[in-house]
TrEMBL record:
Cross-referenced Gene3D superfamilies: MetI-like
CDD domains per record: TM_PBP2
Annotated region described as Disordered, given as residue ranges: 1-24
Membrane topology: Multi-pass membrane protein
Composition-biased stretches (Polar residues): 1-11
Transmembrane annotation, as ranges: 33-55, 98-122, 129-150, 162-179, 205-227, 263-284
Keyword vocabulary terms for this entry: Cell membrane, Membrane, Transmembrane, Transmembrane helix, Transport
PROSITE patterns, alphabetized: ABC_TM1
Domain of life assignment: Bacteria
Protein's name in the database: Carbohydrate ABC transporter membrane protein 2 (CUT1 family)
Every ABC transmembrane type-1 domain range: 94-284
Length: 299
């Protein structure tokens, strides 16, 4: 009896041929190639405009308008950066941005921590409703509140003030949500031991909960810093004095004063606005990823 006949008569079916390792790896390899290709395209979309902006900030005016476009400047024009400070009070813009960013991001983190702590560790009536309100606030575009906030700030006399820029945006529903999700993953035994040791809510928050939540705190702080630094529309509405303008609004003043044709000076100002926050983001990017992942997952 042949091999085929014994196999057929013994089991009634012929075993399927085994797939080779190469055949199994080929689809995965194609997926990896497509994934890396997509990452390269996305990186080019983000990096190329920033590279052009940096090179344009070092060009003469006539070099920017050359056709076909010339990437490298013929001679580095560092004078464009000096013209930024000579045309507008750039130092005032920088100081205002630092103050509003530190105050705004700092209060957002503190308020988010305290609100999330109450939602997780404090029992009070309507806690679920409060959390639903926080989630609903995530869905509301900030432009919806511009007119009511502006009316309130104008009536209180806070136009052209730091509090007028900072206070309307202090509530952070995103920070509260991320903190709450992360707090639910904290070990209960540690907090119970702190309670038995006589620690109150304030001490439990700052001596136990916050140190255990360092990655999430760093992530929320970084997101808040970037948002406050890049904020444009609200400071534009509540400030009309150059001494109170922030950096994004100051770029508009620089464009109006120096003319829209002198792109070298305007690109130099844009580089100066972007560089500090870009360095901060690159330095803390690992904490951002770790914190967002920790805040998004809850047991």
């Amino acid at each position: 009896m042949s091999v085929e006949q014994r196999t057929t008569s013994g089991s009634g079916r012929i075993p399927a041929p085994r797939s080779s390792g190469r055949e199994l790896r080929e689809p995965k390899r194609r997926v990896d190639v497509l994934g890396y290709a997509g990452l390269v395209v996305a990186a080019l979309v983000m990096v190329v405009p920033m590279l052009w902006m940096l090179l344009a900030s070092l060009k003469q005016r006539n070099e920017i308008y050359t056709i076909p476009a010339r990437w490298l400047p013929h001679a580095l024009q560092w004078q464009n950066y000096a013209d930024v400070f000579a045309t507008v009070p750039f130092a005032h813009f920088l100081l205002n941005s630092v103050i509003t960013t530190v105050l705004g991001a700092g209060f957002k983190v503190v308020l988010g921590l305290t609100c999330a702590y109450a939602l997780v560790f404090v029992e009070f009536p309507g806690k679920r409703i409060v959390f639903l309100v926080v989630l609903a606030a995530l869905m509301v575009p900030p432009q919806v509140t511009l007119i009511p906030n502006y009316t309130l700030i104008a009536q209180t006399g806070w136009l052209n003030t730091y509090q007028g820029i900072v206070v309307p945006g202090l509530a952070s529903s995103l920070g509260t949500f991320l903190f709450r999700q992360h707090f639910q993953t904290l070990p209960v035994s540690v907090l119970e031991a702190a309670t038995l040791d006589g620690a109150g809510h304030w001490r439990r928050l700052w001596q136990f909960v916050v140190p255990l939540s360092a990655p999430t705190v760093s992530a929320v702080a970084l997101v808040s810093v970037v948002g406050e630094w890049n904020q444009y529309l609200w400071p534009l509405l509540v400030t009309d004095r150059s001494t109170m303008m922030t950096l994004p609004v100051g770029l508009t003043l620089l464009q109006n004063n120096d003319g829209i044709t002198n792109w070298g000076v305007l690109m130099a100002g844009t580089v100066l606005v972007m560089l500090p926050i870009l360095l901060v983001f690159l330095f803390f990017q690992r904490r951002l990823v770790a914190g967002l992942a920790a805040g998004a997952l809850a047991n």
